[in-house]
Amino acid sequence: MTEKNFKQYRQKLGFNNKTAFSDFLSAKDIQADIDFNYIEFLNTRIKDIFYKINNISYIKQENIELFLKNNLDSVFNQLKQSGILNKLNNQGRRKEEVYFSWIRGYLMLEYFKPAIAQIFSVNIDTIQSIGDDDFSNIDTFKRTPKADLQINHYRIEVQSGFKGINDIKQHKVLEAKRIYLHNKIETIVLHFDLFNGQVAFVNISNIAENDLNWITRQQMEGQTVFNIDQNYFKWLITDEPPKLENILD
Question: What is the pLDDT of residue 81?
């Protein structure tokens, strides 16, 4: 038996392309419809989350309804119209769940921008968005190691935790080291632990390879991550945000 026999077999079944035949056998060519009723429930839950946060956060959105309209409803409609929702995938998770995780993190960044401006002592209008997530175009909607914001000579990576497990993925640290090596620009992770209401500040530009906080996280398919020690947490969101000079060593 040769590859020629195998090719003829596939052709008899109507397939000239190996990938197409493989997708047929595994049903990967069948695209599940988005359950928009489920997404409606998820969007309602996100609104409930931010209503609650806004009730107790020291730095609030003065008009939380307008904030959610502009940053949840509007963005969701753009994702829907651009076809991005159908392209979301992450280790077999449902597209609706991937959307929920992404939009929740996006809203956290936008919600706390006023607090970030206060921490860095800058006008909010001077904060530059430099991340690669563009929700208007499927070709530019990317989840990459690139930081979210730039403030003066700092790059800022904003991430959120909702289960009390607080890690930084290894590729984020490697990207920060690369940026610092070539451009001498430091990257700071602002990690919002919403499960406990606290925020960590971690300069990831020079984390040593033998740092004791590097661990293997089995819940993340055995990925190597930097576990955020409690000493990095410097702010409770119910309190006034600290100033950067009082946070970093």
Answer: 87
Query: For 172-189, what is each residue's pLDDT tens digit?
Result: 999 999 999 998 999 999
Q: Residues with Cβ < 8 Å from 8, sequence gap 6 or more?
A: none
Sort strands 186-193 and 154-161 into parallel, antiparallel or unpaired.
parallel
- Distance (Å, whole) CA 193 – CA 160: 6
pLDDT of residue 66: 97
The values of phi and psi at residue 199, to 5°, are -130, 130
**Secondary structure class of 198 (helix, strand, coil):** strand
pLDDT at 144: 47
What one-character-per-residue DSSP string does 150-161 give?
EETTEEEEEEEE
DSSP for 231-243? GGEEEETTSPPPP
Written as six digits, the tokens of 93 are: 């998770």
Closest CA to 36 of 117, 130, 129, 100: 100
DSSP secondary-structure letter at 32? P
Q: How far is CA 95 from CA 90, 99, 105, 151, in A?
A: 8, 6, 16, 33
Burial class (CB in 10 A: 0-12, 13-18, 19+), 26: exposed
Give the residue from 191, 148, 188 showing the smallest Cα distance to 167. 191
Question: What residues contact residue 115 under an 8 Å CB cut-off, 6+ apart?
Answer: 58, 59, 237, 241
pLDDT for the residue numbered 32: 75
Which residues in the chain come in under a pLDDT of 70?
89-92, 131-147, 219-221, 249
Q: Which pLDDT belongs to residue 145?
A: 43
For position 189, what pLDDT does the model report? 95
